[in-house]
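Hypothesis: this fold can be encoded by more than one sequence.
Test: take the structure tokens below, design a sequence, compare later.
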């Protein structure tokens, strides 16, 4: 470890201490972290200069005493914007450094591969900045999450049959967005928000049950991207020989058995109505749901065998799963070759909504927490 690493580690340690504790004096930080007062002071001053902390004198009411300085963590010292693009809507969020949504805007808008559509995305960003009354200098960047397979190295959509976005680049989507931008695969984004909010979970497989089925793999807190094109493409895991037709051209993939429309199409496109009727005991829907869980269990059992890590069920269906986990776990326990209890490793998602847009934005937050604090240090010490 060189001197830069040591200094950077101290800075990060102090910043993360403040993030956890919210408010503290330099004496308390020095004591708790076993760092010298000058080291703590230097870093606190730097973090305050960067607008990441505020400081104030705490008065003990006694005249002439040396009143200590208290530092306070500012969760919205920086923010990131996430955009979730689907066939029918655009959802935009602003998240703070703790991953809280501080503004959310929903627009129903049909996706079109046209300049006017991209121009509108630029307007969406300006709109949410206005609504949230944001200082533009605080915006770390804008992440755009799209359906389709994204080549992360070259930043373009390799296979975008779901919304006709094949070949489009990050620059196309962000043409009218005057901030740093990232293009992210939608299920990677929602999976990332789950792993990010679960500090004890470092490896995971995230299942996205939206109108298409997707998945993403997390290893040591980072998304595993394969060689850059795809990984975790669960929707095309073959679960039945000569089964139902999949949109990819193959037959028997998981997607046509477990996409959310398999359920929502039975209740006029409204997924919540499917689950309401199911709760009321509708026997037709119960049959469909039983079949759905049977197929989902096949896929989950295979994932567990391949990765041996926790599995999170998300996407549109994920938030409804909590009432049905017992049924799913039972199926999985019966399939386990090692006698494992599925309740120990299969979980419903924690995000109730907007996990795609939130997760996308969190990529910028994560970069900031892991890298920008370090870069700032480097420049500062020159
Ligand atoms: Zn397929």
């Amino acid at each position: 470890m060189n001197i830069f690493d040591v200094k950077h580690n101290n800075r990060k340690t102090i910043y993360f201490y403040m993030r956890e504790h919210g408010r503290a004096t330099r004496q308390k930080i020095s004591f708790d972290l076993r760092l010298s007062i000058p080291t703590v002071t230097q870093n606190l001053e730097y973090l305050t200069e960067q607008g990441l902390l505020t400081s104030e004198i705490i008065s003990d009411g006694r005249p002439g005493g040396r009143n200590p300085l208290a530092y306070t963590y500012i969760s919205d010292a920086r923010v990131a914007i996430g955009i979730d693009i689907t066939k029918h809507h655009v959802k935009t969020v602003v998240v703070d450094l703790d991953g809280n949504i501080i503004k959310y805007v929903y627009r129903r808008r049909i996706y079109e591969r046209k300049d006017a559509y991209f121009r509108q995305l630029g307007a969406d960003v300006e709109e949410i900045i206005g609504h949230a009354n944001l200082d533009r200098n605080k915006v770390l960047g804008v992440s755009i999450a799209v359906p389709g397979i994204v080549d992360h190295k070259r930043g373009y959509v390799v296979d975008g049959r779901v919304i006709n976005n094949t070949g489009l680049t990050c620059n196309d989507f962000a043409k009218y967005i005057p901030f740093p931008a990232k293009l992210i695969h939608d299920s990677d984004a929602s999976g990332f928000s789950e792993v990010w909010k679960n500090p004890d979970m470092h490896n995971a497989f995230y299942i996205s049950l939206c109108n298409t089925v997707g998945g993403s793999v997390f290893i040591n807190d980072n998304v595993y991207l394969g060689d850059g094109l795809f990984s975790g493409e669960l929707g095309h895991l073959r679960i039945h020989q000569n089964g139902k037709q999949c949109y990819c051209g193959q037959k028997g993939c998981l997607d046509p058995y477990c996409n959310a429309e398999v359920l929502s199409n039975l209740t006029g496109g409204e997924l919540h109505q499917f689950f309401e009727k199911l709760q009321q005991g509708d026997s037709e829907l119960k049959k469909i749901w039983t079949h759905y869980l049977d197929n989902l269990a096949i896929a989950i059992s295979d994932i567990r065998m391949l990765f041996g890590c926790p599995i999170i069920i998300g996407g549109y269906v994920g938030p409804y799963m909590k009432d049905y986990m017992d049924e799913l776990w039972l199926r999985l326990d019966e399939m386990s070759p090692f006698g494992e209890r599925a309740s120990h490793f299969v979980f419903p998602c924690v995000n109730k909504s907007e996990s795609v847009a939130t997760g996308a934005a969190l990529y910028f937050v994560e970069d900031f927490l892991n890298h920008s604090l370090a870069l700032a240090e480097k420049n500062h010490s020159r």
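The longest strand covers residues 101-108. The pocket of zinc ion is lined by residues 235-236, 246, 248, 250, 253, 255 (CB under 6 Å).
Hypothesis status: open.
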